[in-house]
Amino acid sequence: MKKLLLLSLLAISISVNAQKGFVSNWTEFVQAYNDKSIRSINLTANITQTSKLYLDKNYSNILEINGNGYDWNTTIDTAIVRRYASLTEANQGIDMQLRMTNISFKGNNNMLLYLEANYGAKFEGCRFYNFGTALGLFWAMGTEINQCYFWDNNIGIELDYAKFSGGSNSASQSNHCIITNCKFRNSAGDFANIKATAVSGLQILHNIFEGVQAGGDYDIYFDDANSNVVKEVTIYGNHVEHIPKIASSFVKLKDGIANYGGTYSQYDCTLIRFETFAYARMIVSNIPFLTTNTKFQSVGGGARWQFVNLPSSFTPTSTTRWIGSMPTQSRFDLLDSNGQIPYIQLGNRKL
Fold it and tell me: What's the rounded mean pLDDT across residues 278-282?
């Protein structure tokens, strides 16, 4: 009798807590999530996910999940899912704004989030440990990722276009996202801290990339996927504090301008690999320091590079600064080796 009473009281307690949006275990979390009158769920203890969480397809309000610093443990493959069959169907839920703050997510080489159709998601103050892909964002426009930590994920953040019916690299993109003030740590065998495919208006600002030397392949991997509406990317003010295996930033752009600058890179590495087969431009500016053997790589005869305000010790025409062929028809606005006399070089002509 006492045992039944205790169980009954426990059930009531779970129900009351979940109804208020304060949860201490997965059962309470699911109950709170299923109550659509609750738009803010708060963790009051570490929780372990025991079932896949499907985000409602037609939900168009703000959904806030605040971790209060607690852990969210999950080994479930693709732990949180929002997926659609078509662009028409996805339009029914595009106005949802998912907000996740102050949660420490811990995985086991699984995928934490697969999110389609979301305008204005925000991830702030979170931590992501040991995922195959931590944040998978597809047709997630205007997403903000700020002051998050990423530890040993094969891909920390993936921004891509949704592949459902009617989607394409010009119709279902994750445009105008911004990644700021985050710290990424990767190890050998990891692919990229940030992987972006066919994203217009992406800004990657003021982040720290670290990890083991000869660590992951890339810090940033940006591919326009031959989209006719992707013309730019901005990568600025970041710290590179390790040696990526291939390049810190890979940029593939068919047309338009890539703006890269303000980077502080501590070790010899390939800082930028730029690939274009038309006449896209890579503008590299305001870099205060380059190690002696920092290199660049230009792939495709149409690449047009512009260097502006780099260290006076940097000579862009030196073959030791390039992997493979040095680009032609480029522009350099620099200072001489004494750091005193400015000069402009256009192709082979020095002014």
Answer: 93
